[in-house]
Amino acid sequence: MRDRDGKWWDGKWWPTKGPPPLLGRESELGVLRHAITTGVTGAGRVVLVEGDPGIGKSALVASAIAASGVPSVSASTSPLNRRRPFALLVEALGGELGGLRRRGDAEAVGADPPEADPPEASDVAPGSGEAILSAFAELGALGPMVVLLEDLHWADDATLELLGAVGGSILAEPTTLVCTARRAPRSPELSRLVTRWSRQGVLTRVELGPLGAAECVALGEWLVGARFGARLVEQVGRAGGNPLFVTELVAALVRDGSIQAQGPAGVELAGGAKSATLPMTILHHLGRVLRAAAGGPRAWRLAPSAR
Q1: Mean pLDDT value across residues 264-284
Q2: Parallel, antiparallel or unpaired: strands 259-262 and 45-50
Q3: What are phi and psi of 178, to 5 degrees?
Q4: Which of 1, 144, 199, 232 could bond to 228 as cystine, CB 3.0-4.6 Å?
């Protein structure tokens, strides 16, 4: 059987096709692209893209930023950074923060040449919040800029407090600040920040819900380059509309040899059961992947028929 690129696929080979298409996200992508354009044409903007782990927040913002053609800087954080003041902002600024290293003076942030490696958050002197804001403003003064901060729900309190000043500082420049975050759980500090941005009139919220069953099936079929049979359609329909779940499920089925050719252009789950049960190895793999996406030991509930 051949895939859409004309190569042979035998149930063990995983085709490399680049990033998957953004299926079912046309409306959200349009809102995000409009907000980016609004922000970088002079009226600065904050965009908050919200959704569950694995729902496609990063893919959406990457596509929108790439399509805009606007220069960007980006950073992401994790639970490990909760105790590191300004960690997310330090990563985003990178070499621009050379002047913030501990040295006992008050040199301007933009005075130092970029460093080979970004400074660690622990190297940032206390009271450097204003200097960080100045660094972002100077970055924006160079021209249109997108600043992407991913996984804002893991940001430290100092970073969240400092970002509250964005509406009256950074956004005076042609800058769009794009943030991604889980909808829940959410810290009180992040909730207050979102409320403050909203009151400042600079916030655009983009909420990502589950994909429809048809989009999930289309994603799976794109991954393997073949049409799904009824049992595969049924299994992918249990993914809860989560693109990460679909991708990992199909990849695991391919690696496990659980997908077989069916006809000249189709694939199906191996075996003749009307409603196939996933092997435990695949279920364990999916559990690990989704717990990692959630950032902790939180359990993901599988549909009973998928256990």
Answers
A1: 64
A2: unpaired
A3: -110, 125
A4: 232
Could you state, in order of their start, the residue ranges of all structural domains in the chain? Answer: 26-207, 213-306
The per-residue pLDDT for range 98-156, each reduced to its tens digit, is 444 433 333 333 333 344 444 444 445 545 677 787 777 777 778 888 999 999 999 98
Amino acid identity of 245? F
Q: What does DSSP say about strands 145-150 and 259-262: parallel, antiparallel, or unpaired?
A: unpaired
Is the pTM higher than 0.90? The answer reads no
Considering only CA atoms, which of 206, 258, 186 is closest in space to residue 45?
206
The tokens for 145 are 């800029």
β pairing state of 266-269 and 259-262 = antiparallel
Q: Residue type at 278? A: L
Hunting for tokens 């729902």 — which residue is that?
55
Q: In what order do the strands lie in the sheet with 72-76?
A: 72-76, 145-150, 175-181, 45-50, 203-207
Q: Which residues contact 269 (CB under 8 A, 6 or more apart)?
A: 229, 231, 232, 235, 253, 258, 259, 260, 276
Per the document, the length of the chain is 307
Q: Which residue has the tokens 């130092």?
A: 112
